[in-house]
Every structure is written in structure tokens, then in C-alpha cells.
Design a protein that fits this description.
This protein has 13 helices and 17 strands. It is an alpha/beta fold and about 350 residues long. It folds into two domains: about 5-130, Rossmann fold (3-Layer(aba) Sandwich), CATH 3.40.50; about 140-350, Methylesterase CheB, C-terminal domain (Rossmann fold, 3-Layer(aba) Sandwich). Helix 2 (about 40-50) packs parallel to helix 3, helix 3 (about 65-75) packs parallel to helix 4 (about 85-100) and helix 8 (about 175-180) crosses helix 13 (about 340-350). Its main location: cytoplasm.
């Protein structure tokens, strides 16, 4: 998988540069240069033209955000942010995603070398996946454009009562999730559950970002949380989100630390499967960009329960792993580009449109 991938490693810590470079090299990735700060990272990208960059967030002379912005302007290259588990770093990491970074990977705490060794397969996999992402397009105005277009739907559209939407995503997903939810009108009265593969400490900030960009009331899930129409929950990092019960258009979730499913927690499959088991009103499952196969079984379960299913297409997916596995089940109703997914969701719950 990693064969032929060339990477630049940027970190102000000599120790971390060495650890990350060694892990990538052992995984078959060719580390063509190391950089001590953002300025050196930009220079290395221009000189070596790598397939991917691992970018520390906080660095002297030029931080990871500015370096990412410069790289996207001078020689667009997939960037993977490496971020520590702090609130400040969560804010900065999302800012880097806004500037064009594809995804982020959290630096371990405690015994760094032991932790990095434990996470090495994940790091190699995600760098390999990020390296395949096409970052040449503009993409920055996609959310605004989609929001304007989807909100041009007739106000007179009538929707089925009490619909629930479950969205699953991973690598490259945060911006895609924001785009889809920002384009959903409150009049659709959806109950929305979002499962984005994201570590603890970041999902709260992620929920706040979607809340600011969407008409829906979006919060990070807590154990026992209840939502009704016009509300959304983002699965908390390191917790599976199960639908515990559903009555009179309101659903309640339960958070667990059961074993990872598909090597991840939260897992899309867990939320989708419990939704299929518990919810008897209209149910829509959507799989967006991401590596791995999480969500494929959930899509099967939703389809078997009579729900509707949508997957993002390959052309607009940062990583066509999860959507591809979902499509391969034969249980996906529609495969759509990211700009059309919000309308695709609304089409599944629209009863009539009057002029």
C-alpha cells in the first residue's frame, strides 16, 4: 500500500522527526526530507515534490497553519496535521483543515516512543491514504456554493414526519460533513447522528463548528442524550454511540467503550446497526469519504430495515475506501458527488413539492 509514497516530515522536535521518519520508513514510505519549521517544510515541498507532508501544528518561524496555506498556494500537496491532545491544538488543527490540510493524526502522550510504536500501522495507513488525495482543486468555496444551491429548494416542499439521518465518515470527512449539514434546511426536521472517526478532545470542537455553520442545533453526544427534530449529535471521541430507544420522534443515545469495531471507536457500524434496530420512522444512512470498511455493514442493516442509503462518489471523496465498501454491498440506493448529497438526502424524505 505504501510502496512508492514519498513524504516530508515537519516537526520542531528532533526526537519526533526521527520517530515519525523511522515509522514511515519501516512502513515502506520514502521520507525525502525533514523540516524543523514551517518555512523549511514549504521549501522541502517545492524542492522534493513529495506525495504527502506530515505537519506539526506548533513550530517556530512559521507554524503548521501558515505552512499549509503556503504549500496549497505554491505546490498543492496533501498535508496530514500531527496534533497534540489539547483544546488549543484542536482549534488550530481545524483551522489547518480550513487552509487545505486533508486530515490530522493525534500525537501520543506519555511514553512517546512506545505509543508511536503502537500507532505505527495507523500512521503509515493514513499517510498512504492522504498521499492519494487530489488537492489540486480550489474546493474552498464548496460549502458556500452547496449551501446556497440546496437552500434554493422550494420552501413549499413537504417532508415525511420524523426522519432520522445517520452520517458516517473518516479521512477527509470533517469538511464534507460540515458541507452536507450546512445545506440541510430546518424545515426537513431531521434527527441527525454524525459518526466521524476522530479522537477524544476534538469531537466537541467539531460539533461546535458544525453548529455554527448549520441551522441545526449540533452538540457532542453525551451518555443518555436525547434529540428531536432539528437537532444533531456528533459521536464523542473514543466512545461508540448506540441508539438506546426511540419514542414519539425523539431518540436517546447510549455511549459505550465496548471493543473497537473495524479497529475504530466510535464506529459507524455500531450507530447505524442500532438505528436500524430501534427506529421505526424514516431512516437515511450516508457514507462519506474515509479509509477502511466501517459503515458497510451499517448500510446493509439500514437497507434491510427499509431505510434509504447514499454513498459519496469516488471523484469527490478524499479517500474512496468507506464509500467503496458500502457500494460493494449492493445496498446503496444512490452514489452522489458531495455537492448533491444534501439534496439526495432531502429527496428521500420529500413527499411533495408544490409551486
Amino acid at each position: 500500500m505504501a510502496g512508492g509514497v514519498r513524504a516530508v516530515v515537519a516537526d520542531d522536535s528532533h526526537f519526533m522527526r526521527s520517530v515519525i521518519s523511522d515509522i514511515l520508513a519501516e512502513g515502506g514510505i520514502d521520507v525525502v526530507a525533514q523540516a524543523r519549521n514551517g518555512r523549511e517544510a514549504v521549501e522541502a515541498v517545492v524542492q522534493h515534490e513529495p506525495d504527502a507532508v506530515t505537519m506539526d501544528v506548533e513550530m517556530p518561524e512559521m507554524n503548521g497553519i501558515e505552512a499549509t496555506e503556503r504549500i496549497m498556494a505554491e505546490r498543492p500537496t496533501p498535508v496530514l496535521m500531527l496534533s497534540a491532545h489539547t483544546d488549543e491544538n484542536a482549534d488550530v488543527t481545524f483551522e489547518a483543515l480550513d487552509k487545505g490540510a486533508v486530515d490530522f493524526f493525534t500525537k501520543p502522550g506519555g511514553e512517546v516512543s512506545m505509543e508511536m510504536s503502537r500507532l505505527k500501522d495507523q500512521l503509515v495507513d493514513i499517510v498512504s491514504s492522504v498521499a492519494e488525495v487530489d488537492v489540486g482543486g480550489s474546493g474552498q468555496s464548496a460549502t458556500t456554493t452547496a449551501r446556497q444551491r440546496d437552500r434554493s429548494r422550494p420552501e413549499s416542499a413537504s417532508y415525511t414526519a420524523n426522519p432520522t439521518l445517520v452520517v458516517g465518515s473518516s479521512t477527509g470527512g470533517p469538511k464534507m460533513v460540515e458541507q452536507v449539514l450546512s445545506a440541510l434546511p430546518l424545515s426537513a426536521d431531521l434527527r441527525v447522528l454524525v459518526v466521524q472517526h476522530m479522537p477524544e478532545g476534538f469531537t466537541g470542537r467539531f460539533a461546535e463548528r458544525i453548529d455554527a455553520r448549520s441551522d441545526y442545533d449540533v452538540t457532542e453526544a453525551t451518555d443518555g442524550a436525547r434529540i428531536g427534530g432539528g437537532e444533531a449529535l456528533v459521536a464523542a471521541g473514543d466512545r461508540h454511540m448506540e441508539i438506546k430507544n426511540y419514542r414519539n420522534g425523539r431518540l436517546r443515545v447510549k455511549l459505550t467503550q465496548e471493543d473497537p469495531v473495524n479497529s475504530v471507536r466510535p464506529a459507524v457500524d455500531v450507530t447505524m446497526a442500532t438505528a436500524a434496530d430501534v427506529i421505526d420512522d424514516p431512516l437515511v444512512g450516508v457514507i462519506l469519504t474515509g479509509m477502511g470498511e466501517d459503515g458497510a455493514d451499517g448500510i446493509r442493516r439500514i437497507k434491510a430495515a427499509g431505510g434509504r442509503t447514499i454513498a459519496q462518489d469516488e471523484a469527490t471523496s478524499a479517500v474512496y475506501g468507506m464509500p467503496k465498501r458500502a457500494v460493494e454491498t449492493g445496498c446503496v440506493d444512490d452514489v452522489l458527488p458531495i455537492d448533491d448529497i444534501a439534496n439526495g438526502i432531502l429527496d428521500t424524505i420529500t413527499t411533495e413539492v408544490t409551486s
